[in-house]
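User: Fold this, then the next.

Assistant: Folding the first:
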Amino acid sequence: MSEWTAADAAAHVRVPNAADDKYSRGVLGVLTGSDQYPGAAVLGVEAALRTGVGMLRYLGPERPTDLVLHRRPEVVTVAGRVQAWLLGSGMDVADGASESRDRMRAALESGVPGVLDAGALELLPLATGPTIITPHAGELARLLGVRRDEVAGDPERWAREAAASLGTTVLLKGHTTRVVAPSVRANQRLAPDLGATSRAQTAGMAQTLYTVTAAPAWLATAGAGDALGGILGALVATHADLIEADDHALARLGATAALIHGLAATRASAGGPFTVLDLAAAIPAIIAELVAGR
């Protein structure tokens, strides 16, 4: 277990060079938002673009698409090659939006690294590529079939157990964010019926846990998780080669996203309340400071 620092995060920000173009800088595919929660798409896209990608493809429902384009006309809304997917923020796979469900399934089955939030969490078994999930305590409790108060009372234990039993990298959101790399590869997930004792034993297998405590309490606000997903999606898209070569890269990128998220919130807050768009606006300066200090 280790606390993730600014120096650690700085090493996981990819700075473009003169030879880069919009494709080599990383292309992020985004399928988030819904008619019920269209703002989740806007916030995630805003945070991702401000973190830095060469292109962002947004393929969500019609209403969020209109809002995203109104806010960010540079977003591309046609399908094409991507280096990573951000899926599920502001969505519910059971809400009857069959087109979005089908697109999420196709994205998960493509083998491309994925960031799974909210409505995409229960589709994790379909993923064929490296994945990181970003649940809060209630969502993780549902995935594991335990009570929310159990997860909230011992988040480290349950984050570790989730990474082991689900075979994925877990970013458990909270005032202290915990990021755990699994002890098995994503394509070697353990059987769903694995007993509690076996899961606990597996959870102790050489796992890596990073903690991040950079965020102010003011960050407990609607939409904050959508912005975190956008930051993380951008980092994953710009580090696709690293993820392919290193099983624990997703955990380090998750911790980096959580740190940038917290530092941007602190800057936006200045000791008081702020909006999530304020947080997103602070991201470029935070990244500039990280890069300058490495």
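Now the next one, as you asked:
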Amino acid sequence: MINFCEIAQQYETPFYLYNLDKIQEKFLAYKQAFAGRKNLICFALKANSNLSVVAKIAELEGGADCVSIGEIKRAILAGIKPYRIIFSGVGKKDSEIKEALKIGILFINVESFAELKRIEAIAQEMQIEARISIRVNPNIDPKTHPYISTGLSENKFGVDIQEAKQMYLYAHKSLALKPIGVHFHIGSQLTELDPIIQSTQKIADFARSLVAIGIDLKFFDVGGGIGIRYENEKTIDLYAYAQGILSKLNGLDVTIICEPGRSIVGEAGYLVTRVLYEKRTQNKRFVIIDGAMNDLLRPSLYNAHHNIKIFHEKKQEKSLADVVGPVCESGDFLAKNAMLPPMESGDLIVFENAGAYGFSMSSNYNTRSKCAEIGIEKGEVFILRKPESFDFIVRDELEILNQRKNR
């Protein structure tokens, strides 16, 4: 049991708290679910890229799904081997492609024909062979929030099967490209298994057609996206997920790659805040806290829900309140219409299931410092990332300003 009150006495709020034991448990559950087949579990760094969190994945012999050269470098700094790193994303710069090839990652996930030709040109210039996979869009509705849906033809990700076939044929003939995998990812926060199984069947059939014409696929990447319970969502059983995927891969001698992010770290993270004061208008009650949308963007961006834990609960009757932060936006809320007792300055409010897309989407809006990240493992509490100071935020700008003044 985590003693939030005790930890909040040691560290200034707001801060993120990650349970590293739970992260390990969630990661190992994936490895166990796919244990009957060659597999590589590549943690999606976009969910949470704290070096200590990624280092825990490295300890467990996990890989990394990265969408920038920065994430690739983070993965390597944390101890993940280059041959366990894949590079995804629709907009890779030439410099990023070149550096990824130089590092020698497992493969690059290609999102368009134009990108395939750029990778080929860069590989030719470097006189190396680029290992690639192609992200195929199965055009199946993942039944999730439209902002995190990625598998429909209207989304910016991947290519349709017909274009993918042409891309594989092109890559197969190229001396600078080596197609070794096939990839799909239909969305994030998925709570229904059927779209995943339908997509697997569709892409597995496509993969078998590629193998039949001599394209030697080694990896079958099923993406990530299993949802967690933020409020009352149904979640997908991990064993049923793995077995459903494996049942569609008959005749394919491939290593399964899975890219979980949210389902590894989401439930293991908390945003810990303190009440500043209450404010009442004629029609509304606000509980104003020291955390804000720059710390946890999901409620403002997706209207996402995070359950609240409160401490020192008063016996007075609860009433509806919006929990809001100091940022100068009406969209700066972390909870709407929450049933809360009267709150006093200094009371703790903890937002649950905040380990994914919490800190990684935070910003310095309103020149607010990014908050600390704290870890807990086997009962020991320790700092993972210090809160930013004002001097840290402005250091580069100030140096440039002073240089210009001194001209």
